[in-house]
Amino acid sequence: MRLKNFYVKSAQRQVIIAGNWKMHKTSKQAVDLTEQIQSAIAGEKNLPEIVLIPPFTALSAVEKCLQKSQIKLGAQNMDWHNEGAFTGEISPLMLLDLNVQYVLIGHSERRQHFGETNTTTPLRIKAALAHGLKPILCVGELIDEREAGLTDAVVGRQVGAALGELNSDQFAQIAIAYEPVWAIGTGNHCAPAEANRVCAIIRKTVAALQARLEEKTESGQPFNANRLPVLYGGSVKASNIADYTKQEHIDGALVGGASLMSEEFVAIIKAAQERVKQTGKAAATR
Ligand code: PGA
């Protein structure tokens, strides 16, 4: 039966639920939210990989709460230089210093408001990987691009630009979030079947990139794109998450607004336990 087959294939992939808090929460509020999430999932089995992504100013406080937790810490952006005269920027070394493990790269709000482009995403991706940080590359089309039938081309270009130079070992460290820009913060989520279709294209694009660059790899083993976690993001909430995690190519979610409320976010995590149970790939302990 079809469902059975897809769980066999997706068994190779990590299920990830990441909460992007954007420009919300002071340190104190961030600690409160972290503690609420932690106590609500205490003792739970089959948890997905949970990543909390607070603003930079709350990373240190949240990190202290997470010291004995399996929840991972992420940052919302990162410059590619180690240090220098880059007022307002944060370097990979600064994130490592706070035990950050994941970093969002190329979020559409960075692209829209802060000049992030397909030229700078690969620099950030490579710098993150060089420092052992796991990048979550964000890609997605604008509404005008979707209406013009350009979704697949835009997303393919974003993936190709950011990841075109990676080798197999590096592919094994990344995740990609498909976030159609028109679905972010609007309540207008993408139909799950359509999100699945685009996530499948992302996986295919990575397979093609990997095949092209095979000769550059060091491990000798080509990376299998079936192992790549691909997440959906854009107005995910407790009431719709299961419709996404049931899809063959969607391995979890990048959650904005709904990650700011502990009950809602915990409900999303618990819904994702079903996919973990089926695929058997639980979160690694820290
Ligand atoms: P949203 O944001 O869940 O509020 O739509 C998602 C994101 O921007 O990562």
Uncertain parts: none
Query: What is the average per-residue confidence, as pLDDT, rounded to a whole number?
Result: 92
For the terminal residues, how far apart are their CA atoms? 36 Å
Q: Choose one word for the global shape.
A: globular
Number-wise, the strands total: 8
- Strand order across the largest sheet: 1-2-3-4-5-6-7-8
Helix content: 40-55%
Report Rg. 18 Å
Are any ligands bound, and if so which? 2-phosphoglycolic acid
Task: Estimate the strand proportion.
Answer: 5-15%
Main pleated sheet: 8 strands, parallel, barrel
Number of helices: 12
**Structural class, from helix and strand content?**
alpha/beta
Could you walk me through the main structural features you see in this protein, from its secondary elements to its overall organization?
The chain is an alpha/beta fold. It is 43% helix and 13% strand. It contains 12 helices and 8 strands. It has an 8-stranded parallel β-barrel, surrounded by 5 helices. α2 links the parallel β1 and β2. α2 packs parallel to α3, α2 packs across α12 and α8 crosses α10. It is globular and about 45 Å long. The termini are far apart. The mean pLDDT is 92. The structure holds 2-phosphoglycolic acid (PGA). The site of 2-phosphoglycolic acid (PGA) has 13 residues, from β8.
